[in-house]
Design goal:
260 residues; 4-stranded antiparallel sheet; elongated; 44% helix; 12 strands; alpha/beta; disordered N terminus
Length: 260
């Protein structure tokens, strides 16, 4: 049994025929390229049909090794990555990919535990969806992550590179480097984005909802305690490591970084 809720092949074909005869159909925008890494070939084909119908260009890989090779060699707008893969697990593929690329990644997982989800996000995933899933939800998550990536690229092109500081802590956005007293601090992508957001608003108290929207995106539908989890990660790597109080909790409101 394929672990996905999706229309049958007949329904997909019928829908394509109906839409192709509809004179009021909207013009398709320039297609984004999506890499689907999924070892269930029948499911991969059905997802490919849906994505192609929505105007995306889809490339596929059926194991972790070939998927990583494609992801490293080609420039994709987004990657759909199954966790349980032969060769290399999806988590390992993601870990290696994040060393060289920030391509948006949505994890496809049959595991519903918080630990597995947090592990995937901690390795640098942008989002996840649990099998079985409704195809409309997957499409919505793809659209949300593509929008967020386009916005980030636009803001990056329009804004000069800057260095953000708080005491001896420094975040060099041009080099994507965080240091404390010249000692490099290794952060995951989401940890980095959260710290950057707090530093950009130094002195201001940001609510959890505000941080969730700014860092994870307005359409994020994952764990609601993601902000608290990642603040805890940052504190373990910065506050506890260097015996400082960087991120302050404002009870009942949110979080704040003050000058230290």
């Amino acid at each position: 049994m394929i672990p996905i809720i999706i229309q049958t092949m007949t329904q997909i074909t019928d829908r394509i025929i109906i839409n192709s005869n509809n004179s009021g159909i909207e013009e398709t925008k320039m297609a984004e390229n999506i890499l689907l890494i999924e070892d269930e070939e029948k499911m991969a084909r059905m997802v490919e049909l849906e994505l192609t119908h929505e105007g995306y260009v889809v490339d596929k890989a059926f194991d972790g090794i070939s998927g990583l090779t494609k992801a490293e060699d080609e420039d994709y707008d987004l990657i759909l990555l199954d966790i349980m893969l032969p060769g290399l697990t999806g988590t390992e593929v993601l870990r290696r990919l994040r060393k060289i690329k920030d391509t948006p990644v949505i994890l496809l997982t049959a595991r519903d535990s918080t630990v597995d989800k947090v592990t995937g996000l901690d390795q640098g995933a942008d989002d996840y969806i649990t099998k079985p899933f409704v195809i409309e939800e997957l499409l919505a998550r793809i659209r949300a992550n593509l929008r967020k990536n386009i916005k980030a690229e636009t803001e990056g092109n329009n804004s000069p590179a800057s260095t953000l500081t708080a005491g001896k802590l420094s975040l060099d956005d041009e080099k994507h480097l965080v240091t404390y007293d010249n000692n490099e601090i290794e952060l995951t992508l989401k940890e980095y984005e959260l710290l950057k957001c707090l530093l950009e608003n130094k002195g201001r108290v940001l609510t959890r909802d505000s941080l969730l929207n700014k860092v994870w995106g307005y359409d994020y539908a994952g764990e609601t305690n993601a902000v608290d989890v990642y603040v805890r990660y940052l504190r373990s790597k910065i506050d506890e490591e260097y015996d400082i109080k960087l991120i302050n909790t404002v009870r009942g409101v949110g979080y704040q970084i003050k000058e230290i």
